[in-house]
Design brief:
217 residues; alpha/beta; two-stranded parallel sheet; 8 strands
Length: 217
């Protein structure tokens, strides 16, 4: 952020990120504008769910079956130069439940190989890019070891756990404080995985929220 903030003529940030940290990074009061929302809300207004997304990856939800979507850690990112053993533990926890199918969205080839090596029969790693937001929309639970997709799932109204192993972002703390995101401390929290009891967020409300935020600029 240091280079981006210092070179920018204007910086737009969520209000929850206001503080000394962004000022030290170059987001000075003169050029920084804070808005009452999250960046993911700006573009979720364009979201149109694909209700056939599970079928496109060969998943046929059977009666009583729960669908879990998991996002792998950002293992090559500069801010995440360490492992995340909790993520593997979470996969093993859902992988031994016969009523669960888990779709893992891997970032890199080595992550795919590591997940395949676990030999979990009900864990699927798609080979090509898919509509991740639609997949989360259809899920009963999302496990996010990263950032953006975790927040998207929480804002879509899907039960979501964060497994992020780095320093907790301010936006994640805000979502946790408002009951829209939970932190996974142990794989035991995933036994058993229940079916979702409430529908996801209404698309019209997402669109209205996005429009109101965009109108601020």
């Amino acid at each position: 952020n240091h280079a981006g903030f210092r070179l920018a003529h204007a910086v737009l940030l969520p209000a929850v990120a206001a503080g000394q940290t962004v000022r030290r990074q170059g987001a000075t009061a003169r050029k920084t504008h804070f808005y009452d929302g999250l960046k993911e809300e700006l573009y979720l207004g364009d979201f149109v769910p694909d209700t056939d997304v599970l079928g496109r990856i060969g998943v046929e939800r059977r009666a009583g079956e729960a669908v879990v979507v998991a996002r792998t850690p950002p293992s090559r990112a500069l801010y995440h130069r360490f492992g995340n053993p909790l993520f593997e533990g979470a996969l093993r926890a859902v992988g031994r439940q016969p009523h669960v199918v888990c779709v893992v969205l891997a970032r890199h080839a080595e992550q795919r190989r590591a997940i395949d090596a676990l030999r979990l029969d009900n864990v699927l790693v798609p080979e090509a890019a898919i509509d991740a937001r639609s997949l989360m929309w259809c899920a009963d639970l999302v496990l996010g070891a990263g950032g953006t997709m975790t927040r998207e799932a929480a804002l879509l109204g899907v039960p979501t756990f964060t497994l992020f192993a780095g320093r907790e972002p301010a936006v994640d703390r805000w979502l946790i404080e408002h009951g829209r995101l939970r932190r996974l401390e142990s794989p035991l929290q995933l036994d058993p995985v229940p079916r979702r009891s409430t529908p996801p967020a209404d698309v019209a409300r997402l669109r209205d929220r996005s429009a109101r935020l965009v109108s601020m600029f």
